[in-house]
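Hey all, quick one. A colleague (J.T.) asked me to put the heme C job into the tracker so the inputs and the structure tokens live in one place instead of scattered across chat threads. No bug as far as I know, just bookkeeping. Sequence used:
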Amino acid sequence: MSLPLLSLLLACGGPPQTSEGAASETALTERELAQALSLSPLPALPPSPSNRVADDPAAAALGRALFFDARMSSNGEVSCASCHQPARHFTDGERVAKGVGVGKRNTPTLIGGVYSSWQFWDGRADTLWSQALGPIESPLEHGLDRVRVAHLVFNHHRAAYEAIFGPMPPMDDRARFPEFGRPWPGEPQGPDHQAWIRMAEADQGAVNEVFANVGKALEAFQRTLTPQPSSFDRYVAARRAGDATGGGHLSAEAERGLKLFVGEASCVLCHNGPNLADDAFHSLGLPTTPSEGLDMGRAVGARLVLSAEFNCAGPYSDTTDCPELRYLNPEFPDFILAFKTPSLRHVAQTAPYMHDGRFKTLDEVLNFYSTLPGEPPLGHRELTLKPLKLSPDELSALTAFLESLSAPAPEVSPPSPS
Ligand code: HEC
Ligand code: HEC
């Protein structure tokens, strides 16, 4: 090469970029790589000290039977699996849930729920076992009451129950145990509450015990619904083993999405750790029209969990050590319109999105983060959020990354009839 030509090339900024140069632009920085590695693998299941049968296989089998049992509803048609459908990654594909009535919130997946300290979009339950008791008595979901639940267990699951929890109360003694009943302070004159207050206190306690144990069996079952490895998990395993290509488990596009996720787009501020969720509550400032009525989210959920009859610190818990509750301040102003950060594992398989199911596709979610339209009607949007103004390329890269978190649902066969 003659000298004048070389100097011309240098003046123009050096030789044209090689493909290697392009690749290093999209490669993760050291910090981004460390962040990416922190997202996988999932650790062993955390213990559930408030549930002594959490890891008892017999309790999981009873929980599975109850999960699919549609007799556990006022119309005999609704089971947990009606909304948490195994074939849909334990969601229902609806904007908001339809049980005995229609609810206001979107049905979350149950896969990996064991990794959350709080259950529900507003965290109004602090354990998986107490969570289950809410929908059973919700007039919009199962529409049942705890005395009926105890009869159902007595009539159809008694042997399995007694093998785990010991003798049941004599539910066939109709002088002591009416056909139905539950405390319902909101409707003190209603038949359910009236039947309940006529029961002896010890019998109320015995029914509560059965009810809590139903929740504990359901938790033992749900602990078996663990996330299966995704392409992203395989990519991380390869990178940990020193393979800079990540074993080819992510496309170049998905890897660019990962770089954005842990880097410039700062998704990891909230979707962090191996469950891709920070176990906390945030207001994203989703626009709300006044006619919809405001869902206050965590501001109400925090109060409810502290006063809940079946929380970790209550008489039906198997522990008294409940740090999460002890340090919870329901007056925290940032709880207004805040909802739980959902895990993003399987997210491409669990549309629609957000606590109210407002977004049908991941594109719609990402467009929201890109533009952050409107202002929340109360409180303020989490201050760390800024409109990301993502280009079409960046949007599809992020989508490709979110799709790499897909995995098959854990296999569960419905139990045989009892
Ligand atoms: C009518 C549909 C429906 C039925 C039936 C139903 N669920 Fe749900 N489930 C939902 C909805 C909707 C939510 C979110 C509600 C909220 O956050 O207020 C939810 C939330 C949950 C959560 C919390 C998940 C999370 O990420 O916070 C768990 C666990 C759960 N349900 C388990 C169960 C079990 C166990 C049963 C059966 C006893 C059941 N559900 C019955 C619709 C349903
Ligand atoms: C300030 C914390 C925070 C940040 C930062 C954040 N998220 Fe979220 N994300 C949440 C919360 C909270 C929700 C649920 C909000 C609701 O339902 O009201 C959510 C919901 C979602 C959902 C819907 C999941 C579902 O199952 O409904 C997706 C997808 C998502 N975020 C992806 C992202 C991506 C991608 C980024 C980065 C561009 C990001 N998030 C940044 C907190 C955050």
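Adding what we noticed when we looked at it: The chain has a mean pLDDT of 92. Residues 78, 80, 82-84, 97, 99, 103, 105, 107-108, 110, 113, 116, 119-122, 128, 131-132, 135-136, 141-142, 218 surround heme C (ligand 1) (CB under 6 Å).
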